[in-house]
Write a structure and sequence with these properties.
Layout: H1 9-20, H2 24-37, E1 42-48, E2 54-59, H3 69-72, H4 84-88, H5 99-105, E3 108-114, E4 121-127, E5 132-138, E6 143-149, H6 156-159, H7 165-182, E7 187-192, E8 195-200, H8 206-217, H9 219-223, E9 225-232, E10 235-242, E11 254-258, E12 261-262, H10 266-276, E13 288-294, E14 299-300, E15 311-312, H11 315-332
Parallel strand pairs: 1-7, 11-13
Antiparallel strand pairs: 1-2, 2-6, 3-4, 3-6, 4-5, 7-8, 9-10, 10-13, 11-12, 14-15
Helix pairs in contact: 1-5, 2-7, 10-11
Bound molecules: adenosine-5'-diphosphate and magnesium ion.
Magnesium ion binds near residues 30, 33, 34, 94 and 99.
GO molecular function: ATP binding; ATP hydrolysis activity; ATP-dependent DNA damage sensor activity; mismatched DNA binding
Protein name: DNA mismatch repair protein MutL
Family: Belongs to the DNA mismatch repair MutL/HexB family.
């Protein structure tokens, strides 16, 4: 019988990385979420070779104090929660404290950061099996830049699963679309191989928000969308749903956010489908960008490491609220409301 041994920190992190770091887009998701959690107004994303060679995310958020830098790359280290009560009411996108540890165990990661009350920035990297942090002085404005090079360079089995540059970049692009739909108040730029692919200014007014939706989801969508805004006790649903006449052959334009987090949920999907049931042909799919706001204490976001799933405390209530709101909105549409943008 072999002896039982503790895994080295690097190997433990690499195993955990299996759950959250599937491809370059997963890295982008984690880094952008961190930037937004740090209160960034602006997030710049730079990608080379679909992200396999380089992912660089730069923000103007709060930054990380030099003393905290070694911890930022350690597993189970987070500034976002300290107690179970915090977890149950969590308002940030992150809270598990494992993204940076996981990513840095399967790539060459460097993080440079400066807080407002620091005169100089510092840079941290980790090395070796024990993932010891090395810190050096650096130049950087207030905020953080994370650079991830050579993703999966030390896990060849994973690297083999990377698809073509174009496919990987499409996933990154989709990831940024979701983040930008989730946070209108932040500006985003996305560059791929030195070419600017996306440039979005912060959107505060309704008009600016619709412009952003138009550039992310297509002008056709927003021109054919009904505005939703409804409230019930403890629940608010707002956003845009396409008229049945603007249906899709694939379910590729469906974004549902719960408290700012994009999620996939059977119950939500069912409620939306039911609302469209009488107005959409069987093999067509509705298009929507919807935001549900609920008391964080009534929804569990700690269902899966990627946090794509949630569990509602009162699923029935949420389902019926979504169904009723959308059903009514679609029933209220009169023919001359079609092509809102054009008339
Ligand atoms: P989590 O987001 O779950 O807390 P991460 O591993 O993603 O875990 O990040 C660890 C910690 O590093 C965060 O809790 C935060 O304090 C800090 N951090 C990471 N990225 C940033 C950033 N862009 N700006 C400020 N702080 C950051
Ligand atoms: Mg995080």
């Amino acid at each position: 019988m072999p002896h039982i041994q503790l895994l080295s920190p690097r190997l433990a992190n690499q195993i955990a990385a299996g759950e959250v770091v599937e491809r370059p887009a997963s890295v982008v998701k984690e880094l952008v979420e961190n930037a937004l959690d740090a209160g960034a107004q602006r997030v710049d994303i730079e990608i080379e070779q679909g992200g396999a060679k380089l992912i660089r995310v730069r923000d103007d958020g709060s930054g990380i104090g030099e003393a905290d830098l070694p911890l930022a790359l350690s597993r189970h280290a987070t500034s976002k929660i300290t107690t179970l009560d915090d977890l149950e009411a969590v308002g940030t996108l992150g809270f598990r404290g494992e993204a940076l540890a996981s990513i840095s165990s399967v790539s060459r990661l460097a993080l440079t950061s400066r807080t407002e009350d620091q005169e100089a920035a510092a840079r941290v990297e980790v090395e070796g099996r024990d993932m010891a942090a090395s810190i050096s002085p650096a130049a950087h404005p207030v905020g953080t830049t994370v650079e991830v090079r050579d993703l999966f360079f030390n896990t060849p089995a994973r690297r083999k699963f990377l698809r073509t540059e174009k496919t990987e970049f499409n996933h990154v692009d989709e990831c940024i679309r979701r983040q930008a739909l989730g946070r209108f108040d932040a500006g985003f730029t996305l560059r791929h191989n030195q070419r600017t692919v996306q440039s979005l200014r912060p959107a505060h007014s309704d008009l600016d928000k619709e412009r952003r939706i138009g550039s992310l989801c297509g002008q056709q969508f927003i021109d054919n969308a009904v505005v939703i805004d409804a409230e019930a006790t403890g629940l608010r649903l707002w956003g845009w749903v396409a008229l049945p006449t603007f249906s899709r052959s694939q379910a590729d334009l469906q974004y549902f956010f719960v408290n700012g987090r994009v999620i996939r949920d059977k119950l939500v999907a069912h409620a939306v489908r039911q609302a469209y049931r009488d107005v959409l042909y069987n093999n067509r799919h509705p298009a929507f960008v919807l935001y549900l706001e609920v008391d964080p204490a009534t929804v569990d976001v700690n269902v899966h490491p990627t946090k794509h799933e949630v569990r509602f405390r009162d699923g029935r209530l949420v389902h019926d609220f979504i169904f009723r709101t959308l059903h009514k909105a679609l029933a209220d549409v009169r023919p001359d409301d079609h092509f809102r943008g054009a008339v």
